[in-house]
Amino acid sequence: MKRFWALIGIFWIILVTALSADYFIDFEEAVKPEGYSSATVDLNGISWNMSSVLIGSASGDLTIGEKAARFRHSINDPTEMTMLEDKSNGVGEISFWYSRSSFTGDNLATAPVFVVEYSNDEGIIWHQAGEVVDLAGIDELTSYSETVNLTGEVRIRIRSSSGTHGRKFNVDNILLTDYIEDSPLPVELSSFSASSDHNGWVKLQWISESETEMLGYDVHRSYFNSLAEAEKINYVLIPAANSTVQQIYSFIDREVRENTTYYYWLRANNLDLSYSYHGPVSIFIGIDDDQPGQEPHDLKTELIGAYPNPFNPDTNITFRTAERSLVTISIYNSTGQLITRLINGKQYEPGFHSVLWKSTDNFGKPAASGIYFYRMEISGVYLKGKKMTILK
User: Fold this and answer.
1) In the chain, where the domains are located
2) Residue 354's CB: how many other CB atoms inside 10 A?
3) Can you tell me the distance from the alpha carbon of 198 to that of 209, in angstroms, rounded to the nearest whole number?
4) Contact, 35 vs 18, CB < 8 A?
5) Average pLDDT of 378-390?
6) Res. 220 pLDDT band, cuts 50 70 90
7) Nearest CA-CA partner of 207 in 176, 245, 252, 153
8) Domain 2-176 shares a fold with domain 299-392
9) What is the DSSP string of 79-101?
């Protein structure tokens, strides 16, 4: 198995070197003093602090090559590896491989939970990138990927935030891509939603405003809010129209059962074999309301949240409706000035829905960094508002 991952690692290094000047760490040449005590380590030309982290190559370490970072969660000291210098040309995507280690006891008690954070002010303030990662049941190398797309001077850290003292996990092949210049995307989605039809099946619908050089779409589903555990459920690629006018797509998931929550992601596949994910949207399939003695599922109308948050430049605002409703979603700046209306009295069926905000106003002008408020109205009546932050 290690030989297989070593070959993958070699291919990955060649690919990264050939295609970009992105920052990459495979730990193969890295040297750190023995033990878990805090120390400064040079990793491919940038200094990192490694606290309760060492560079492991034992049989219990899960590595792609011969070495990987081994975190040992501590309740007494910080457990983290932190960049002490900035990456000068920004960060587009943060990606790496991770797994719980296989030393005795690492699969017992409470598994560690880690979070990835970034800073663009030399480490004074840290911002979370994506969701926290729970290592429970993660016993093989699993990929992590999160897009932050920040310009200028940026550094990151990987931090174990909770878990049983002494439990260990590995991180390998860290890749920080350069800031991605704004350019026309292969697909621009304005909506991705899930609802239950009269058969009790899940109907997914998405709307693209434009498509270029696309192969098509795949639908991924999970019982948990974890893309890593999601599986593709469409047997045949859903072809893209590759049109500059609005296109509406739908997919019916018939393999669902009652009293179950499902999470869905949409994967957009491009002609150059790159891809991007959209979502998740989630839906709870309740018990059939027409069957005697059974309670209908508990679905309420609510504004769920914005993800990612903070963001740059796009975020998805997710909400759900308990019945057919006229929905308005508006964006305001910190002084209460209306910036744009993403949805204006549009009718939605019962279910979960999301709408994309590209951080522009009604005239297409980019919004500045700062705090914004988004609010939801049903049939013109205010329901709820929440806060989000643009971080450029």
Assistant:
1) 2-176, 182-297, 299-392
2) 26
3) 28
4) no
5) 84
6) very high
7) 245
8) no
9) -EEEESS-BTT-EEEEEEEEEE-
Share of residues in the chain with pLDDT > 90 (%): 27
**Topology (CATH) of 182-297:** Immunoglobulin-like (2.60.40)
Tell me which long-range contacts 299-308 makes (C-beta under 8 A, separation of at least 24). 299/350, 301/325, 301/378, 301/383, 302/383, 302/384, 303/374, 303/375, 303/376, 303/383, 303/384, 303/385, 303/386, 304/352, 305/386, 306/357, 306/374, 306/386, 306/388, 308/129, 308/130
pLDDT digits (tens, 9 = 90+) for 275-316: 888 888 888 887 554 433 333 345 678 888 887 778 888 888
CA 350 to the chain's CA centroid: 26
pLDDT digit string, tens, across residues 168-197: 999 999 998 887 665 556 777 888 888 888
Other Cβ atoms closer than 10 A to 155: 22
pTM of the predicted model over 0.85? no
Question: What distance in Å separates the CA atoms of residue 171 and residue 135, rounded to the nearest whole number?
Answer: 12
**Average pLDDT of the chain?**
83
Which residue matches tokens 């890295």? 30
Taking domain 2-176, whether its CATH number is 2.60.120.470 is answered by no
> Going by CATH, does the domain composed of 299-392 fall within 2.70.70.10?
no
- In order, the DSSP letters of 9-45 are HHHHHHHHHHH---EEE--SS----SSSS-EEEEETT
- Give the Cβ contact number of residue 240 at 10 Å: 22
**How remote is the C-alpha of 298 from its chain's centroid?**
27
Rounded to an integer, what distance in angstroms lies between the CA atom of residue 309 and that of residue 113?
A: 20
